[in-house]
Specification:
By secondary structure, the protein is α/β, with parallel strands linked by helices. The chain has a domain of about 250 residues: Rossmann fold. Helices cover about 25% and strands about 15% of the residues. The longest helix has 14 residues. The structure holds S-adenosylmethionine.
């Protein structure tokens, strides 16, 4: 691959994006108070952003200046946080960080074991050749791939191929490379709703060597992006998908960095049954007390999270609830919502209630294994750990893979049948 496109390969946002936060440029803009969360453009190469940062927290690098940014205007009306988020400078998330994060996942999601074996290793492994066919296609059409890494792509590709949902909702679109995968994996004519505060074409304009966007012109995808954006929770799904039976057969792909509890409430309310929760940070990362998220908590928390080892998280993930019992010494922790712009301090009792809530709602909680990882993990990869020749398999090397084969054990959730009729 030419060196310039090689460089851009790492400038994507993605499922591990908010683990790539070490070089995220963050600054607090106390003069603004907005409740919207906006995606701003993928910038063509430009000068450093340093001078725009009044706090000195900005660690923008030259590579960072060429990367896409998310601009998140804080959700809290009293405190606004204007993140200028530099997504995924290659240097920002090291292989060591990825392995440290993977090592936080225990053998199983101990608090939510129902359905933890929903998909067997044999059927997952059997799917690898089909995924490789798709991967080759994606490489041809979107060579500067963004934003999901190979491991998460495999999980979602398997899920869509296996469930064959009637409708797909993707919350979190970015450049639309995931839309490309969904369109090429779902049954012909499957309706897709794509939701993002930014529009792929605006945020990721095409230029030589850039990530470039993909938008579906088949007529089967509805874009609730840019000016048409509404949050998943605010949309009248009864109008867009009037048949409750179809909603029960809809897959909701959540890559929008919101609290899993808030999202499950909405899924329940509309009778959605299936969800894929992508950035499934382990508890420690999900609840990180770092300098970059939770501006609304100000200095009421001690921001000493070891970001050099673990980067940090921006949403209360499914695994943060289901992964295991709270560490003994933890009396309080942070619950993050809305890309880490809306945070609350929670107690052990809150965690118990959240575990109980999810357990009651879920028929299945399944965490996808990793396709390949060079890291040690009690959860074996699907590709044999001795695999060294990834290239001959048609996969990128660890060095060239978008996230160094990082993995957050994204989860598939199947909710129980609604106990009360859902709106139509
Ligand atoms: C990690 S990217 C999504 C990448 C995409 N899933 C892919 O792999 O191609 C996260 C996206 O979530 C978007 N986002 C932020 N808040 C959102 C919200 N409330 N609803 C939906 N998307 C949101 C951001 O603008 C960003 O584009």
């Amino acid at each position: 691959m030419p060196s310039n496109s090689y460089k851009y390969k790492y400038d994507g946002c993605g499922p591990l994006s908010c683990l790539a936060l070490l070089t995220f440029s963050v600054f607090v803009d106390a003069s603004r108070s907005q409740t919207s969360l906006r995606r701003v453009l993928e910038v063509a190469p430009h000068t450093s952003d340093k001078k725009k940062n009044p706090t000195g927290l900005n660690k923008t690098t030259t590579a960072a200046a060429e990367a896409p940014y998310w601009n998140l205007i804080g959700a809290n009306a009293n405190t606004s946080l204007n993140f200028k988020v530099n997504i995924a400078s290659r240097k920002s998330l090291t292989p060591e960080q990825q392995c440290n994060i993977i090592s936080e996942f225990g053998r199983m999601p101990l608090m939510c074991m129902k359905g933890h074996d929903r998909f067997g290793r044999a059927e997952l492994k059997k799917h690898i050749p089909q995924f490789m066919d798709f991967w080759r296609l994606q490489q041809q059409i979107l060579p500067n791939h963004c934003c999901m890494g190979v491991n998460h792509m495999f999980a979602l590709h398997f899920l869509v191929s296996t469930l064959q949902p009637s409708v797909i909702i993707e919350s979190g679109v970015a450049a639309g490379h995931q839309t490309f995968m969904l369109r090429n994996t779902a049954r012909h004519g499957t309706r897709i709703f794509s939701i993002d505060p930014g529009d792929p074409a605006m945020s990721y304009p095409k230029f030589a060597g850039g990530i470039g966007h993909w938008k579906d012109d088949s007529g089967f995808t509805t874009y609730l992006t840019g000016a048409s954006f509404q949050d998943f929770a605010a949309i009248n799904w009864g109008a867009l998908i009037p048949d409750p039976g179809v909603r029960a057969n809809t897959l909701v792909v959540l890559d929008d960095h919101q609290s899993c509890i808030e999202r499950v409430k909405v899924l329940r309310a509309w009778g959605f049954k299936w969800a894929f929760y992508e950035d499934n940070y382990p508890f420690m990362v999900a609840t990180s007390a770092d300098p970059y998220t939770c501006a609304n908590l100000g200095n009421t928390i001690v921001r000493d999270f070891p970001i050099a080892k673990f980067a940090f998280g921006d949403a209360y993930s499914m695994n943060a609830v289901c992964g295991g019992p709270l560490p003994e010494k933890t009396s309080n922790f942070i619950i993050k919502d809305r890309f880490g712009t809306s945070c609350t301090v929670a107690t052990r009792q809150d965690q118990l209630l959240n575990v109980q809530y999810l357990r009651e709602q879920m028929e299945v909680y399944f965490e996808f294994p990793v396709l390949y990882t060079p890291c040690k993990s009690p959860r074996p990869p699907l590709l044999d750990a001795s695999t060294t020749d990834l290239v001959s398999l048609g996969l990128p090397t660890v060095e060239t893979e978008l996230w160094h084969y990082g993995h957050l054990f994204p989860s598939f959730v199947e909710l129980t049948k609604p106990s009360v009729p859902v709106p139509s």
